[in-house]
Every structure is written in structure tokens, then in C-alpha cells.
Amino acid sequence: MSLCLFHFKTNNRKCEDRMYIYRDTNMFQLSGGGFYNNLGQKSGCWRTLSKNFWDLSQVIYQGQYENGQKIGKLDINWKIPQGINVFEQIGGGSFNEKNMKNGIWVEVCDGFLEQQINYSQFFLVTTNLYLVVNI
Fold this sequence. Notes:
Helices cover 0% and strands 63% of the residues. By secondary structure, the protein is mainly β. The chain has one domain (2-134).
């Protein structure tokens, strides 16, 4: 099996990562990326491949950006190995208006493999306090 990652921009507005996976004579493609605004900041819906992306850990983060800041809900999806482009949501959470995690989050651990367990955290953000509680 071989992996190839390509990163491109078109007209300085769109950024796209394409991951090509070759297994025997078959080729599969997973795409990520999104758009930049006129100031070069991330804007709108973005799909990002995890930093440890590989065959047994095909994790993609999907969420919204406004003026380069994460906003609202972020979904963490995992590609089911037996399915062709079949993704299952395995985690996620929300960002507040200050680009900080807020509320209950379910995240994947570093080095996540197809059979590992996710962990949950609760983020409470107030004016002078940032509290993280592992659930």
C-alpha cells in the first residue's frame, strides 16, 4: 500500500488536501480543504485530515471557520475500513465566540486506531476560569 498527499491552492481562495491511497491496483481518494477569504483567512466549511492519518486511522475533522477562527460545531469522523467512503462520527464538540472549546467534547487519542476508545471532556469557560474535566 502507498500513500500520497497533495496540497494545492487555486486563485489564492481555495485550499485542498487530497490523499490518494493505493492498495494493490486500486486507488482510493479522500479529500480535505476549504476556502480562504480575501484576507487569506480560513472561511466557511473545512475538512482537515488528522496529523496521524493513515490506513487504520482515517480521521477527518469537519467544521466551520469565520475570519480564520473555528466557530460552532466541529465533527470528528472516521472512515470505516470496510466501507467505500462510509464515515462514522466518532467525536466532536463546539467552540465559543472566543475560539475556545466549550461544553462536552469527545476526542480521539493520539495514535487512534480503528478499535481504540475515544475520551470525553467537559470544557467550562467563564471570564476568569478555564476548567477541563475528564469524563
